Amino acid sequence: MAQPQPFDAADIKRRMHGAVDALKHDFGGLRTGRASSSLLEPIHVDAYGANMPLAQVASVSVPEPRMLQINVWDRGLVIAVEKAIRASNLGLNPQTEGQVIRLRMPDLTQERRKELVKVAHTYAEKARVAVRNVRRDGMDHLKQLEKAHLMSEDDHKKKADEVQKMTDDTIKDIEQVLKHKEQEIMQV
């Protein structure tokens, strides 16, 4: 039987923070009343015979709080970019002037804001589950080390407490990010 790897607290911390980073990325795609270039990250455009991310065929800027401006680099792709935006189900209506596409952010209704908050809570729960899975992996690894007599019972207890503290801190971070996003969504 192979020896278990030594315990690596930094790896567990990195994996937990990965869940928080993924949550922030997911939140970036949630539309609030404000314009954000990250809103367009999931959009892919059929260009040059391939399916490419929008960022590879155009630059996105935020000239006003409620407007996105897309500067398409190749004039031949303007229609393809416009088509991709319409097909994205983001509820945005592109207005084209030459190689520039402008997207006005429509006002969100109270009902839509509440739906977005529910989606945000779903994303946060997914992140909490990911953190708890990392915690479980860490705890299982500690048990293996103790069972293989590579760690004393006291060390196991200390490291388990350390993993629990990392878990609690990371879940607090998730709650903080969620609270901030909720305020952003509900702000009229």
From TrEMBL:
Identify one Pfam family in the record: RRF
The Ribosome recycling factor domain extends over 23-186
UniProt protein name:
Ribosome-recycling factor
Asked if the record carries the keyword Cytoplasm, the reply is: yes
What the record says about family reads: Belongs to the RRF family.
Subcellular location per UniProt equals: Cytoplasm
Q: What is its main location?
A: cytoplasm
The keyword Cytoplasm is annotated on this UniProt entry? yes
Q: PANTHER family this protein is in?
A: MITOCHONDRIAL RIBOSOME RECYCLING FACTOR PSEUDO 1 (PTHR20982:SF3), RIBOSOME RECYCLING FACTOR (PTHR20982)
Q: Classify the source by domain of life.
A: Bacteria
Provide the GO biological process annotations.
cytoplasmic translational termination
Q: Which GO terms describe its cellular component?
A: cytosol
What Gene Ontology molecular-function terms does this entry list?
A: ribosomal large subunit binding
According to its UniProt entry, the function of this protein is described as:
Responsible for the release of ribosomes from messenger RNA at the termination of protein biosynthesis. May increase the efficiency of translation by recycling ribosomes from one round of translation to another.
Under NCBIfam families, the record lists:
frr (TIGR00496)
Give the UniProt keywords, A-Z: Cytoplasm, Protein biosynthesis
- Tell me the organism: Aestuariivirga litoralis
